[in-house]
Amino acid sequence: MKHSTNPQTRRGRGPARRIGRSLALVLPVVLVLSGTLAVAGVNWSGTTSSPMLTAADTSDSEASSPAGAGAPHEVLRDALLVELQEENPGVALTHLQQAVNDHPSLAKHCASIARTLGKAAVRVYGPTTAQSYARPVCDTSFASGVVTADR
User: Fold this and answer.
1) Contact of 120 with 99, CB cutoff 8 Å
2) Residue among 108, 120, 119 nearest 73 (CA)
3) 115, 86 contact by CB (below 8 A)
4) How many angstroms separate the Cα of 11 from the Cα of each of 4, 5, 14, 96?
5) Cβ distance 149 to 123 under 8 Å?
């Protein structure tokens, strides 16, 4: 069996190798940063510090309320819309993600709430600024709401 004496063939210095080396350097950094941000965003104390999370847990107070405050996902949506106007869409999205993490029953409503937040963000901040707050909460539904908002 004859071995190749061509250095490029033998050592594999083509574009694939350069791309591979670049990914080998960049990918661990991206993974560490995203993991650090994910861990930093978790409420490790177990207590809810946001009124949004408390508002989502209203299943017992619903029956006692004379007018019926609405389903927990409606209460959460309304509270997040207020927070979007008073703070910014990023804070509202963070609290939406925390509410879904704390109350998995809200997960089926997450996409519709995020789309509603996206549409409201366009009305309050304009399309360009609203889009700058987009992140993958509920499968990019916030960005979908921004894109489909009536301007």
Assistant:
1) no
2) 108
3) no
4) 10, 10, 9, 51
5) yes
* 122 contact partners, CB below 8 Å, separation of at least 6: 130, 145, 146, 149, 151
* HEC secondary structure over 70-133: CCHHHHHHHHHHHHHHHCCHHHHHHHHHHHHHHCHHHHHHHHHHHHHHHHHHHHHHCHHHHHHC
Contact by Cβ (8 Å): 146, 118: yes
- CA 101, CA 103: separation in Å to the nearest integer? 6
Q: What is the pLDDT of residues 70-87, one digit of tens each?
A: 788 899 999 999 998 999
- Convert 76-86 to b/e letters by CB count within 10 Å (16 or more is b): bbbbbbebbee
pTM of the model: 0.54
| Whether pLDDT at 134 is above 60 | yes
Tokens at 139, concatenated = 């499968």
Q: How far apart are CA 107 and CA 101, in angstroms?
A: 8
